[in-house]
Fold:
Amino acid sequence: MSKFKLGNRSELDGIRGLSVLAVMAWHAEIRFCRGGKLGVDVFFVLSGFLITALLLQEWNKNGNIDLKNFYIRRALRLFPVLFVMMLLYGIYASLYETPVQALNSYKYIAATLFYVANWVQVVLGLHHPVLGHTWSLAVEEQFYILYPLLLIRFLRTKANHRWLLLYFSTVIAGVVLNRFWIWQGTASYDRAHMSLDTRADALLIGCFVAVLVVNGLVPKKRWIFDLIRILSICSFFILCRVISRGIDEEIYYKYGGATIVAACVGIVILDLMGRPSKPMQWFLQIPPLVWVGRLSYGLYLWHIPVFVLVGANVTLSETQLKITSFVAVLLVAAGSFYAIERPFLKLKDKYVSSGRRPFKVEVNPKIQETPA
Structure:
């Protein structure tokens, strides 16, 4: 079994910080961040990596995964601040929107709280100018519901974890082909952009990297680490390039560009979990960037409502308005984090696995030969 322990990785918070700033800059229409929406793909890869790493650690420690506690921890992490935001927007809609607009808002609030906001856009064509970005939360939550069940089923077969890597690779290839056929067909842009079956490749690439890291499947040879480091540096610059300049959407959705972007993120994470480049690690651990990363969930949730509110009530030049909007979002997200998110995060400790092993688990000898 692997001795890998995820722990608190500030460099991953740094990646979150860069990603959420990229998304915010894209929504603010800042010219040097024309591909900022790709920050969502970075979040997907990180989510897949973190969830898989935590689940595998629990399995390796206890011989089982407590799904009830897992879902409670997810709810404590994600739902409280989302509920507060939806409540506040519901009040705003009842006071300031027309009856037709308010009804549309109420429907979208319900879809968001039940984590189906992506499908109401894809299937029903129900869009919202302020809450539309919650589609990505729905994709992640749908993945969180389905994926642990499939992972546990695989782990109980006691198969070599390399078979799990093969399974992930096969499904990723299937997602790429599925997105290709959807894009060239008659389906809507939202169908290719917002569906779980067309965006799961990024999440699964994160899962793939977690299996490599947690189970020590990366050969412990110097040239391997050097190669990963070189690939990581190249990947980081590719990500900076596509986020700053953007990428053609046909290439991105039809020809696998989304998967390449996600693979670059995965390589960077793989490097950070091994022997990373010191300059890159130092950059990602800059305290203000790490702090922004810890606020990233709140920043993502609140940034469009705050942008809209500031834009409707403040008369400034374009540059001053953008600066004011960013500062306002940081203040709101910080207040949200310390007043709402952090108290609930402390409750998660009550739902950590106790360490008991309810049944014996036979471990494949090949896995034992590759400790982390």
